[in-house]
């Protein structure tokens, strides 16, 4: 990361966008205590990350890029584990697990081992575990990737509702029309550098792109400007 600095207001839906290898997942790992930065600092909900990591972990929910699931547990057992780990009572953990499984259409698989889950089921289970303790800030690395359109709608509606309730969303996606619909504000990074930040309208104005430019148009203009298009010699 190259001197990236940003602030996300409480309850904002913040999209952290950039091409493959830009540093999105690395930033999320640093902000959630999974990776120690060599330099720099961050404060989350008033807690300095480095000195109050445990306090930070209590108020955040994380859906990492590589899902941290225990394959030999069932989905239900995993959610029970997550709830109890965050200090919820046994009853509350059960109640929330039941509601989350029903909400995410995972009820039929609740007794199945995670090792036998499909990719989308895994994602939904990991998302449920990230939500179970009512976090104030959610870090979601590609939450919709691999999720079918029906659950996708359920999940995006839920995320929107959470943001309206004041939960701060920090999310990455390569699906820019989804990001455009969900986000109040975005940051675009490229090779570890911040290339734009603000609402879509602000970025359009700053970068002199047309008023009707989509987020994808803006992204391609800012990020792909110096990319040379190569060709495949054997395709005519
Ligand atoms: N601990 C580390 N120290 C130094 N470089 C790292 C470290 N971890 C990852 N990187 C490098 O940082 C770059 C960004 O990787 P990252 O996974 O953050 O990209 P990304 O934006 O999430 O991309 P994608 O869209 O493909 O998920 C990669 O080149 C990666 O090799
Ligand atoms: Mg990534």
Written overview of the protein:
The structure is a single chain. With 236 residues, the protein is α/β, with parallel strands linked by helices. It is 39% helix and 15% strand. It has helices at residues 24-31, 53-59, 75-85, 90-103, 119-131, 149-164, 176-182, 200-206, 215-223, and strands at residues 13-17, 43-44, 47-48, 60-63, 137-141, 168-172, 185-190, 193-198. The longest helix has 16 residues, at 149-164. The termini are far apart. The chain binds adenosine-5'-triphosphate and magnesium ion. Magnesium ion (MG) binds at residues 24-25, 65, 141.
Which key features would you list for this structure?
236 residues; alpha/beta; Rossmann fold; six-stranded mixed beta sheet; two-stranded antiparallel sheet; 9 helices; 39% helix; binds adenosine-5'-triphosphate; binds magnesium ion
Give a brief description.
The protein has 236 residues and is an alpha/beta fold. The protein is built from nine helices and eight strands.
The CATH class is identified as: Alpha Beta
> What fraction of the residues are assigned to beta strands by DSSP?
5-15%
CATH-wise, what's the superfamily? P-loop containing nucleotide triphosphate hydrolases
Largest sheet: 6 strands, mixed
Q: Treating each run of at least 4 consecutive H or I residues as one helix, how many helices?
A: 9
What are the SSEs and their pairings?
Elements (H helix, E strand, L loop, with lengths): L12 E5 L6 H8 L11 E2 L2 E2 L4 H7 E4 L11 H11 L4 H14 L15 H13 L5 E5 L7 H16 L3 E5 L3 H7 L2 E6 L2 E6 L1 H7 L8 H9 L13
Helix pairs in contact: 3-4, 3-5
Bound molecules: adenosine-5'-triphosphate and magnesium ion (MG).
The site of magnesium ion has 4 residues, from α1.
